[in-house]
Amino acid sequence: MIDRARLATLTEREASVFAERNPKSAAAYAEAGHLFGRVPMTWMNKKAGAFPLYVESARGNRVVDLDGNEYLDFALGDTGAMAGHSPAPVVDAVGRRIYEQGGMTMMMPTTDAEWVGAELSRRFGMDAWSFALTATDANRWAIRLVRAITGRSKILFHSYCYHGSVDESLIVVGPDGKGMDRPGNVGAPVKVTKTSRVAEFNDIEGLERQLAHGDVAAVLIEPALTNIGIVLPEPGYHDAVRRLTREHGALLIIDETHTFSAGPGGATQAWALEPDVVVIGKAIGGGIPSGAYGLSAELAERILNRTDLDIVDMGGVGGTLAGSPLSVAAMRATLEEVLTDAAFETMIATATAFTDGVREIIAEFELPWSINQLGARAEYRFATPYPTNGTDAAAAADPELEDYLHLALANRGILLTPFHNMALMCPTTSLDDVAAHHAALREVVAELVA
Ligand code: PMP
Fold first, then answer.
1. Relative to the CA of 136, which ligand 1 atom is closest?
2. Is the reported ipTM for this assembly greater than 0.95?
3. Would you say 333 and 92 are in contact if contact means Cβ atoms under 8 Å apart?
4. pLDDT band at 1; cut points 50, 70, 90
5. Which atom of ligand 1 is nearest to the CA of 282?
6. Exposure letters 158-180 (e unless 16+ CB within 10 A, then b)
7. Of all protein residues, whose CA lies closest to atom 10 belonging to ligand 1?
8. 361 and 434 share a domain?
9. Which of 338, 371, 395 is the last residue of a domain?
10. 279 and 164 in a common domain
11. I need a labelling partner for 151 at 20 to 30 A (CA). Which of 273, 288, 356, 417 fits?
C-alpha cells in the first residue's frame, strides 16, 4: 500500500527541510559533547530527524524551539505535561512555596499532602496514599509492598507493557509463548523470568495459566496498554482479571500513569475497576516531579501491622525528596485547579474530534490504519482492525513511516509523541488546533499515497 521508495524520497526531503528550519538546534546538539549520547537523557535520541529540537519556551499546548519555530504540542512530554506546559495555578503554587514560604525539600510534611491524598481517594477510590517523584518509583515501592504482604516472589505483567524502568516489568511473551526478557533489556540483574510472569493483554486463559503457578504476588497492569499504541480491553476482560486474581490469591495493581487520560479518576473510576493498589505519576504534578501509590485500607493496615517491615528507614520503600513540599504543592494545584473534572470533559471532547478527524483521513485515503481513543488521548496504528494485544501491536510498528510522519508534521508545526503516534489533549488544546493537525496530516498523507 505504501510505496517504500516514495516514502524514502519524501522522508529525505522532510529531513532536509527540518535541518534548514532548525540550525540552532542542530548546532546545540553538535556541541553537546559532555552528555551521554549528546542528550540530557538518552530517550531524547528517539528522534525522527538528525538531531532533537531544543526547547526555548512552552506554555499550554504551544512550544517554541530554539530557532523560533512554533508548534502545537500533542506530545505534552509523553503525558508529563498533560495539564499543559506551566499552567498558571501550578506556577503560582510552586512559586509561593519557593519565593514566599521557602522549603522545597524538607523531609517534613506540609498540609497539602493530606489534601492531595483525599483528592486521589475521591478520584481513584484507594484509602491510603504515599508519594514518589516518578511513576517508576511508585511502581517499585508498590511491588516491594505486595511481595512483603503476600510472601510471593513474582509479579505478572502484560506483554509489551511499560511501567517505567522497573526490572520486573521488562518481560514479553516470546515466540514460543513463554516469557522472556524484553529485547534490549539493559543490564538485567537476573533473568526476568525469575521475578516475573507475563500474559498477553485480553488473553484470559493465558492469565489464568500463569496465575495457576501460585507464586504471583500481584498482577501489575495498565487498564489499557498505552505504550504500544492504545490497546483497549475487550468486554469482560477486566472482570476476568479481578476474578482470577482473587481466586489465585494475587493482588491487583493498576498503573494509571497514562490511562489517567480516561477521566478525572482514570480508567479505575471510568470503568469501575477494583484494584488493591493504584499507581500514578507524571501528569499529577503539572510538570514538577511527582508520583503516588494508593493502597486499600485493608492492605495499608496489614503492612503497618508488620513489625518486621522497615518502611520508615532503609527497608527499600521511599525516597528522600518524595512527598516534598514542592512536589505536593504542585500536585494540589494540578488536581484542584487544572486537571479538574470539568477540564476532562473538554479534553475528552477535543480528543473525540481528533479521533473522528483522523478516522476520516484514514477512510478517505483507504489507509490500512486504525485509531483508538482513551479519553483525552488517541493514537493511530498501522494496522486495521486495531491490534488487541501487545505482541500484535508491536508487530504493527513501521519506524520509517513513523519517522516520515513525525518529521513532516514537525515541519508543519505539529508535535506528536516521539515514541508513538500518540496525541494527547491538554485543557487548552482547542478544536482549531485539532483542525490544524488534520490539515497537516491530510497533506502529508496525500503526498505519500499520490
Ligand atoms: N507507568 C506507565 C504506564 C508509563 O507509561 C510510564 C512512562 N512512560 C511510567 C510508568 C514511568 O514513568 P517515569 O518514567 O516518569 O517514571
1. 16
2. yes
3. yes
4. confident
5. 15
6. bbbbbbbebbbbbbbbeeeeebb
7. 163
8. yes
9. 338
10. yes
11. 273
